[in-house]
Structure formats: structure tokens, C-alpha cells
Amino acid sequence: MVARLSKIDWLEHGLKTLAAVGAGGLKAEAMAKTLRVSRGSFYWHFKDIGEFRAALLDLWQERATRRVIEDIDRIADRSGQLLELLNRAFYTSTKLESAVRAWATQDEDVAEKVASVDRIRVEFLVNMLAREGVSAASARPRSVFLYLAYLGTISLGNETDLTLSPAELEAMAALVLN
């Protein structure tokens, strides 16, 4: 017997499903089967698949944007903030981010959420660079450039030999800040 699933259990499973098989796998019956529960468990927490998908996107945005920003802001060494952000961006799995972006090509609501996340992330970078003394005229283009490099990493996935060593990434962070 499986313990009662919570709303967050369903959302966690949804994020794993999205990363593994894409948005096509976000179906109540298929996910319930994988979790070995009835569809009723799903509908106990969500009125329909649309509500589930909206909550899933909100959770993705929370974790991939707001929590990351809060974590980075907690780093006391301001000069280490950019390096930590770059490490997270370039050395963590890109499967979920890639899946969300693929989904955005098929769904206007998802595309709007992704565009919102992109704006928040770039503005965070702009503000970070400005705090480090980068001029306003340079902070935005440098931030956009870094973000486009991150998006390129997502499109390549983690299965590439086009990576930077930690020392090379540190040199790139210094270059952006100077």
C-alpha cells in the first residue's frame, strides 16, 4: 500500500516526468500508474491537468529562479556570487530546463512563463554586475551574453565536450566583471 500522496509529491513527480520524457508525459493516468495510485489521488489535489501544469510551472520558476537568487544573495563574498551562479548554470543538469523550454515551443502559457523567468534572471545578473562596479552601459550586454551562453549550454545538454574547467570558468567570471 502506498502512503497518501501530497500535492508536492505530485508536483515533484511531475518535474521528474517532465525532465525524463517531456510535457507529453504530464498526464494524470500515466503519472498515477507510475506512482501506483489511482487517478483519484491526482484529482484530490488538482481540479484538472491544466491546474496541475500551472502549479508545476510555478514550482519550476520558484526553484530555478527565486531560490537560486536567494541562495546567491546569501553569499557574503560579493565577488564569489557570480562564480557560484556560473557554476550552477554550467555544471548542473540541464534536462528539466531543456524540457520546459521545449514545452514552451508548443504552449503559449509556458512560453510566457519562460519569458518571465528569462527577464528575471537577466535583471538579476544586471544588478549583480552593477553591484560589482560594472557600468550600466556594460552590465546589460554582459548579462545578456552570459545568459545566452547558458541557453547555449542547455541546447547542447550535458553530453558535450564543450565545457569549461573550473579555472576557465573563474577566468570568464573575472573577465565579465572587469
Write the layout of secondary structure elements.
Elements: H1 7-21, H2 28-35, H3 39-45, H4 49-73, H5 78-91, H6 95-104, H7 108-131, H8 136-156, H9 166-177
Helix pairs in contact: 1-4, 1-6, 2-3, 4-7, 5-9, 6-7, 7-8
What are the salient characteristics of this protein?
178 residues, mainly alpha, 9 helices, elongated
Structural description of this entry:
With 178 residues, this protein is mostly helical. It is built from 9 helices and no strands. The longest helix has 25 residues. The protein is elongated and about 55 Å long. The N and C termini lie far apart (59 Å).
Q: Tell me the Rg in angstroms.
A: 19 Å
By DSSP, the count of extended strands is: 0
| Net shape | elongated
The secondary-structure class comes to mainly alpha
Q: What amount of the residues lies in strands? A: under 5%
Average pLDDT number? 92
Provide the low-confidence segments as ranges.
none
Separation of the first and last Cα atoms:
59 Å
Order of helices and strands: HHHHHHHHH
H/I helix tally: 9
What share of the residues lie within helices? over 70%
Largest sheet: none
